[in-house]
Amino acid sequence: MIYIPQEDMLNRIGSIYKLVILASERALELNNGSPKLVDTTSTKVSTVALLEIKGGKIGYKKVDATQGKETI
User: How wide is the angle at C-alpha 19 spanned by C-alphas 17 and 25, nearest 5°?
Assistant: First the structure.
Protein backbone atom coordinates (compact mmCIF):
# COMPACT_ATOMS: atom_id res chain seq x y z
CA MET A 1 0.00 0.00 0.00
CA ILE A 2 1.37 3.39 -0.99
CA TYR A 3 1.15 6.27 1.49
CA ILE A 4 0.79 9.72 -0.08
CA PRO A 5 0.91 12.65 2.38
CA GLN A 6 -1.91 15.18 1.96
CA GLU A 7 0.40 18.12 2.53
CA ASP A 8 2.21 17.50 -0.76
CA MET A 9 -1.00 17.84 -2.72
CA LEU A 10 -2.69 20.53 -0.63
CA ASN A 11 0.15 22.94 -1.37
CA ARG A 12 -0.53 22.41 -5.08
CA ILE A 13 -4.37 22.37 -5.02
CA GLY A 14 -5.16 24.63 -2.06
CA SER A 15 -8.25 22.93 -0.64
CA ILE A 16 -9.04 19.43 0.56
CA TYR A 17 -12.44 19.67 -1.14
CA LYS A 18 -10.92 20.52 -4.52
CA LEU A 19 -8.42 17.70 -4.03
CA VAL A 20 -11.16 15.14 -3.37
CA ILE A 21 -13.21 16.23 -6.39
CA LEU A 22 -10.18 16.31 -8.68
CA ALA A 23 -8.96 12.88 -7.53
CA SER A 24 -12.40 11.30 -7.87
CA GLU A 25 -12.94 12.70 -11.37
CA ARG A 26 -9.50 11.50 -12.47
CA ALA A 27 -10.11 8.06 -10.92
CA LEU A 28 -13.32 7.78 -12.95
CA GLU A 29 -11.40 8.69 -16.12
CA LEU A 30 -8.77 6.05 -15.35
CA ASN A 31 -11.47 3.48 -14.65
CA ASN A 32 -12.98 4.23 -18.07
CA GLY A 33 -9.70 3.49 -19.83
CA SER A 34 -7.63 6.69 -19.81
CA PRO A 35 -3.89 6.01 -19.79
CA LYS A 36 -1.84 6.54 -16.62
CA LEU A 37 0.33 9.66 -16.62
CA VAL A 38 2.79 8.34 -14.01
CA ASP A 39 4.91 5.22 -13.77
CA THR A 40 3.54 3.06 -10.96
CA THR A 41 2.88 -0.56 -10.17
CA SER A 42 -0.38 0.26 -8.38
CA THR A 43 -3.57 -0.97 -9.98
CA LYS A 44 -5.87 1.13 -7.78
CA VAL A 45 -7.25 4.03 -9.78
CA SER A 46 -7.57 6.22 -6.67
CA THR A 47 -3.87 5.79 -5.87
CA VAL A 48 -2.85 6.49 -9.46
CA ALA A 49 -5.01 9.63 -9.48
CA LEU A 50 -3.38 10.92 -6.28
CA LEU A 51 0.11 10.15 -7.61
CA GLU A 52 -0.71 12.09 -10.79
CA ILE A 53 -1.87 15.08 -8.73
CA LYS A 54 1.22 14.90 -6.52
CA GLY A 55 3.45 14.76 -9.60
CA GLY A 56 1.83 17.82 -11.14
CA LYS A 57 0.41 15.89 -14.09
CA ILE A 58 -3.19 16.79 -13.21
CA GLY A 59 -4.60 20.19 -12.32
CA TYR A 60 -7.80 22.16 -12.61
CA LYS A 61 -9.07 25.37 -14.11
CA LYS A 62 -11.57 27.62 -12.40
CA VAL A 63 -14.34 28.76 -14.73
CA ASP A 64 -16.17 32.00 -14.04
CA ALA A 65 -19.79 31.07 -14.79
CA THR A 66 -20.95 34.67 -15.10
CA GLN A 67 -18.45 35.65 -17.78
CA GLY A 68 -17.62 32.25 -19.28
CA LYS A 69 -13.88 32.82 -18.82
CA GLU A 70 -11.34 30.38 -17.44
CA THR A 71 -9.01 31.43 -14.65
CA ILE A 72 -6.18 29.43 -13.14
Answer: 105
